[in-house]
Amino acid sequence: MAFASKRLAKELHKIHGSLPPGIELVQAEGFDEWLLDIKVLDANPLYMNQTYRLKFKFSSSYPIVFLIEPPEVTFLNLPDRPIPMHPHIYSNGIICLDLLGQQGWSPVQNVESICMSLQSMLTGNTKNERPEGDEGFVKHNRKRPRDIDFYYHDNTV
Amino acid sequence: MPPPNTPGGSPPDLSPLHITVPPNTPFNHGSPRSRRTRTARNPYSIDENKVYEIGPSDGVDLRCLKYVSEVDENLLCPICHAALVDPVTTPCDHTYCEDCIYTAWKSNPTCPVDRSPLILPGDVATPPKIVLNQLDALKVKCPCCGDTLPRSMLRNHLSRYCSNALVKCPDEVCEKLVKRKDEGKGCLHYDSECPDCKEHLQEIDMESHREVECENREGICQHCSETIIRCKEAEHLKSCPEVMTSCKWTKYGCQHGALRKELDAHANECRFSTVGQMAEMLQAEISTLRDQLHTLNEKDKAQERRIKFLETHPHFNFSDVSSQSVSRLPDSSPTAEFPESRDQYLLSLLESQESKVDQLSVGLTELEAKQTMMLFNETIPIKEQLAELRSAQGVIGMHVRWLMNFRMQERRPGPGAGGSSESGGPGGDGHRRLSDTMRDVITKL
Fold it and tell me: Zinc finger spans (TRAF-type) (chain B) (predicted)?
């Protein structure tokens, strides 16, 4: 699986290079976790003038992450970095998106494509709400995001 | 597939990367090159500058290679982001490394790019030869010795030529591995003591130990008090500025000796410098003249041989040796004066004839082969047609028999035909049976 670590290194090298508009690298050193800031570019009133921080975590699955497993991607809640309001994003930052799950993952995805998918997921949203059962989930969930069995029912956003 | 030598669970020895890394240079890995990672033989971490030791049983994963120049983006595998290795193309026209797509497919049986369902190994095909050629021609650096070579040659290079690749120890009893370049030194797998730190280790590791790892490897030059690697002292002494050295014109008679750093000053005033330079120039000239003389001698000998030959055969057209026929041999009056050149002439004739015979025999074999091929090509369709005709004839025969039978039965209608039906019955049955077997044969055909 050596080429897998090489692949990850290339990924790291690439995000240190150029990134598409609205995506900025905050910190990516080593292969533990990487932080990126994303913004919604168009004038969606829900996310205007806001910046959100994403955390990519490569826990135990190194180095097969990206190859057969998605990285663990969550939003971080900081004083100047809120969790975006979205019917598929829980208030603790956990994202319900099929391509971040084991089933929907494809090895051709990369950091850039994940960020862009999240951008477009926010752009297309008009509902100012949290997912159903958000409070209970946030209170009781002890699982890591990738171990949660999400039920992907909503294809509209 | 290479043995997975990834460090189990523990984070790899990679130090942080910085944005200042220029795009074309390999990543900076600040981690010191430790003996542990080298003995663990982990050729697959991503430090491309490291020299690896690859043994005869280790496959080399071409996906981890360092390419000399940037690989065209269209030749990259979407999964491993490296130049394609053993590429396969899916029905939806996406191309991946064979190993990559199998790995990805095991966790999700779809095409990773467009998620169309995929069945392996049936669905994939090899991409066109032109793509494979492009990939084979990519220049890579050998992970052992750093040589640049086309990728298709790498495996052969490692298994046969690379001087840093590991091969079996030349000692028959010893089962360990040595670098190919050390193969001639005999078995180096015996315990030995490092003269610097008194540590016991195998002789085979001694060189790298003394150069890189030994705690006492550094010593101080007794002349210039500079820090040096002890095992390289002899090399250092050749350039150390504080060592007593003799003037470079010693061989022309200068007796002066001084510290190396002071020799420059001496060189300016050395009385032998004029003579020395002259002598060197003259020597160079003499050697070129010798070379010229040698070539001239060779030429002269050749000319002499030619003259002798021409004297023996005054009417002989020299440029025409090969076209001489055997029948002309008696005409060229053989004289006893130059037996050597006559022999030469005969020999040359013989040679030319021999080569002609060779050519003819080669041509003959070629013709023969061609003839056989033609014969084959012509007879095969004929044979096929023959078989077809035979089967057609069989079918027609069967039809005729059936019709005849039919007609015969028509002519003798009625069940009460008595004896005649008894004699005709078996005959009819026989026909029927025959045609049935024929039909079987035909359907089998």
Answer: 208-254
- B14 neighbourhood in chain A, CB within 8 Å: 9, 30-31
Q: What region does A36 belong to: left with phi over 0, alpha with psi -120 to 50, or beta?
A: beta
Residues of chain B with Cβ-Cβ distance to A30 below 8 Å are 11, 14-16
Q: Is residue A147 in some structural domain?
A: no
**Taking the model in full, what pTM does it have?**
0.50
Could you please state the CATH topology (level 3) that the domain comprising B1-187 is classified under. Herpes Virus-1 (3.30.40)
Domain B190-242 fold: Herpes Virus-1 (3.30.40)
Among A5, A11, A57, A108, which would you mutate to test the B interface (most chain B Cβ atoms within 10 Å of its Cβ)? A108
Helix (H, G, I), strand (E, B) or coil at B125: strand
Q: Is B95 helix (H, G, I), strand (E, B) or coil?
A: strand
DSSP labels, B165-181: SEEE-SSSS---EEEGG
Number of residues that make up chain A: 157
For residue B142, pLDDT beyond 50: yes
Average pLDDT, chain A: 83
ipTM for the predicted complex comes to: 0.77
CA distance A142 to chain B (A): 23
Please name the residue that has the structure tokens 């820090």.
B227
Chain B residue whose CA is closest to A6: B46
| DSSP secondary structure letter of residue A105 | -
